[in-house]
Amino acid sequence: MEDNKKEVKGKVFDKIAKAFEDFTKVTVTTIGKHNVDKFVVDKRLIVPATVTNIESIIGKKEIEIADFSQCTDLLNIDTKAFEDDSPEEDSFEEDSFEEDSPEEDSPEEDSPEEDNTLKEIIFPKNITTIIGCFNVIQSIEKIDLSQCDKLEKIEKDTFWDCKTLKEVKLPDSITAIEDNAFSFCHSLKEINIPNRVTAIGEKAFQSCDALEKIDLSQCDKLEKIEENTFWGCDALKKVKLPESITAIEDNAFSFCYSLKEINIPNRVTAIGESAFEKCEALEKIDLSQCDKLKKIKKDTFGACYALKEVKLPDSITAIEDRAFFGCRSLKEINIPNKVTSIEETAFQNCEALGEKALSQYDKFKKNKARKKEEERRIREERRRIREESERRKEKLKKKIIICIVIFWIIVLALMFIYESTK
């Protein structure tokens, strides 16, 4: 049985190898519906090296692998080439790459799974641009760009909503992953982030439900984790951030239910609202060396049910509403001396908060109440002084008026006497 399988595989390999050899002699420059079937061997599209323009790979033959590796002069690929623009009444084969728009999410409106056949794309080495969005192929499982050393960025929405995409290999040349580049890739388990990456856009990996780990530790020019970058990555357990990070924006890791381990670099100066909200497996956060961090913002660690220990830096001056709301396992947290504001709901429903932390919190609340009372007393004293000053001014004004009246009475009396003695 095994020998038969090896024999079949060997024959297929020989057949594909011969096709590669034959297609090197072809001088075609354009692939489209009119000729694509000529280059399909055992469900593998082998694009000749001379091709510089891809109009469409949709023909009558079923394709599982699209191989562009020989196309040294092909510099960009437009995803429209993978989309079937034929009318609905056309044949089954022509309809197999129908676009699945984001608005049509219900199962009955999606293209049937058996209609989708393309699972892997092998990109040409010299490609510099990928145009469009690959969600027109709702069967794609693997993207290998590792040899594309002239490709510098993954454009906005490129792999957005590729529900079946499981593995992505990026080249070392990548410096930017733009907004929504891989968002809603629900099956994505593996992706490497090249060291040269300097920017990862908003929602770049939002709702990548199967993604388990992200290592950014060598991206030493990456300074910010943008809003919603890893929002809703349910399976994400471990994240390594580089020391170059200075900001973690709003909702960056919120609803990462499985996130258990993440380092917060010392250079971080700002952590946004809800940045780690609903990270239910997170047990420990050490911010003690982030000496430029001033605030723990609204909902930053809200509903982190497993969070037991938090270390805050001495630079913290404010802990905002619901910052640790619902952290029911939280036992230890230090309240720095510079803190001047803790909102009422900052530690609401922190049922396990230890005596030391509670005493610090109570001490802060008493000091705050004392300060409020002192401020109230000072305001009252100032008001009393102002009122007293006003009263004195009024009395003085009246005295001045009386003096003026008396003065003029005397003047008039003297003038009358003078006139009477003439």
What can you tell me about this protein's structure?
The protein has 422 residues and is an alpha/beta fold. Helices cover 21% and strands 15% of the residues. A seven-stranded mixed sheet has the order 2-3-5-7-9-11-13, with helices on one face. The chain is elongated. The termini are far apart. About 9% of the residues have low confidence.
Largest sheet: 7 strands, mixed
H-E string:
HEEEEEEEEEEEEEEEEEEEEEEEEEEH
What's the assembly state of these chains?
single chain
> Alpha-carbon distance between the termini?
153 Å
Order of strands across the main sheet = 2-3-5-7-9-11-13
Overall geometric form: elongated
Cα gyration radius (Å): 36 Å
Strand content: 5-15%
Measured as a percent range, the helix fraction is 10-25%
User: How many DSSP H or I helices?
Assistant: 2
Spans of at least 5 consecutive residues with low confidence: 5-14, 88-114
Number of E-type strands = 26
Short description:
21% of the residues lie in helices and 15% in strands.
Write the layout of secondary structure elements.
Blueprint: H1 2-23, E1 30-31, E2 40-41, E3 44-46, E4 53-54, E5 65-67, E6 76-78, E7 120-122, E8 129-131, E9 142-144, E10 153-154, E11 167-169, E12 176-177, E13 190-191, E14 199-200, E15 213-215, E16 224-225, E17 238-240, E18 247-248, E19 261-262, E20 270-271, E21 284-286, E22 295-296, E23 309-311, E24 318-319, E25 332-333, E26 341-342, H2 355-420
Parallel strand pairs: 1-4, 3-5, 5-7, 6-8, 7-9, 9-11, 10-12, 11-13, 12-14, 15-17, 16-18, 17-19, 18-20, 21-23, 22-24, 23-25, 24-26
Antiparallel strand pairs: 2-3
